Amino acid sequence: MTIDKSWTTIRRRGSSNEFWNGLQHFLQMAKPFVNDKGFIKCPCRRCLNNASHQLEDLESHIFRNDFMFGYNQWIHHGEPATGNAGTTVAGPSGVIHERDEMFDVLDDIISEDADEDAVGGPSSNDQYDDLFAALRSELYPGVSSFSSLNFLVKLMHLKVLNKWTNKSFDELLKLLKLAFPKIDLVESHYEAKKLMTKMGLGYSSIHVCKNDCALFWKENSLKDTCPVCSESRWKLQSGKRSGKNVPHKVLRYFPVGPRLKRLFATSKTAKLMRWHSTGKSKDNDVMRHPVDGKSWQEFDKRHPQFAGDIRNIRLGLAADGFNPFGNMSLSYSMWPVVLTTYNLPPWICMKAEYLMLSLLIPGPQSPGKDMDVFLRPLIDELKELWVHGLDTRDAASENSVFRMRAALLWTVNDFPARSSLYGWSGQGYRACPTCNEDTPSMRVIGKTAYFGHRRFLPTNHHWWSNLQFDGRTERKRPPRRFSTTDILEQLRRVKTGIPGKHPSYGGVKRKIGDDELNWRKKAFSTSYHTGLLSS
């Protein structure tokens, strides 16, 4: 009997029925040769038949690490030692299991970590074993169209689309188990969420001081009191900590790097990530995408190494507050921080499925001047993506690995949110961040009015001499364009305030000096933003 071994050389495993069927046939052949403890040698490229695992673990090891080179005669897995060691073309007799669509999803997820795992041991990716167990498991005896994992993912998707509560989801699971006693399904939403986290759909919960002074993160992660205002990290009852530690505030952080890597995991989206170079307008007078603008072009000139690889990512950031309680008479402001990928074409980059939620800033008050406190995890990761980048598999280039880097080029906000992010106040006589200290303004019936807009018209325009605006002809030229040096010099004069809203610390209203103009804080910055200030 000949044995088909050609499947062991297939690279794109998730999209290959041949690989899936060949692997299942191999496991069936090896099943009688496990030892008395249920272990057998693992022929993946990491274990090299030097380590033994249970048979169900071999599937995930071979899937994520490939089949080892040179093992042409499967003497440890049922093939006679005297048999032909060459690869034959005959296939396995029939399909062992119907290949589940979640197999492709796991292939994309695991391929992202393949290079990072290369420095670890054979069990460094054992978190995927639970996913493979759920993938192998039939939802119900005799049902081959749904694996347990596939059904759970679709059920969680329905929960999100229809805004089911966690409690209603738990009750649905109980009903399904009551109606179908043999169904293989998790017991609760908590267990389902833990499984989804292993698929890269999780987030980090970071505790925040009740006065927004600091995050209990990194150097403050083990502290029980705020390093600025000394307030307790935990909610207290009658001056004492309750039985279970409950933080005052929780910031939800969704890491960006893994999701950016996933954009290159399929050939379709990997090709779209090159659109800004291959599909942009050839007409210099037409702007239909940020790549046609001066800022993008100026950035490429300043950073030729970054621009040299068209797969490097340009990002935009948007943030604004909303009341999650809808029409209820409750004052509450929660701030999502969303990233968009400008490598994609204009008809895709603003679609909901391509927008990435990175932070969910808790209320009840808006972050205001303390926005930088909440942005710290995101900014730290963006700096890492700019300086070091991430090894990423590119499905559009035969799964070649490249060093993906990312840069944040723009923020998209209304004026109040811009003040929180940028640091230049949108109120007062110098509210305009473009005109800066030259903002033309005056007081009119208790309100600040801004005028002088005719200065931006061509000098020969007839409105320059029109008296119907304010009874005067316009004589001033457009406001000067402030250089990078000018802006940095202004920021150098801005005094660093105490973060937070504690009435004895950051909440004390600080007198703004005349030399600070309309700056209220030094905004977050990265090493490449200096070059953007003048672009």
Description:
- This protein is of the alpha+beta class.
- 29% of the residues lie in helices and 13% in strands.
- The protein is built from 16 helices and 15 strands.
- The chain has helices spanning 17-30, 55-65, 102-117, 129-136, 148-161, 166-179, 189-201, 257-262, 267-272, 275-278, 294-302, 304-307, 346-349, 371-387, 415-422, 484-492; strands at residues 39-41, 52-54, 204-208, 215-216, 236-237, 240-241, 249-253, 313-319, 335-341, 356-361, 390-394, 400-404, 406-412, 441-444, 447-450.
- A 7-stranded mixed beta sheet has the order 4-3-7-10-9-8-13. It has a two-stranded antiparallel sheet with strand order 1-2. Strands 5-6 form a two-stranded antiparallel ribbon.
- It starts with 16 loop residues before the first helix and ends in a 43-residue tail after the last helix.
Strand order of the largest sheet: 4-3-7-10-9-8-13
Write down how many β-strands occur, each being a DSSP E stretch of 2 or more residues.
15
Helix content: 25-40%
Taking all Cα atoms into account, the compactness measure Rg is 30 Å
CA distance, first residue to last residue? 70 Å
Summed over residues and divided by their number, the pLDDT gives a mean of 81
By oligomeric state, this entry counts as single chain
Main pleated sheet: 7 strands, mixed
**Strand-pairing-aware structural class:** alpha+beta
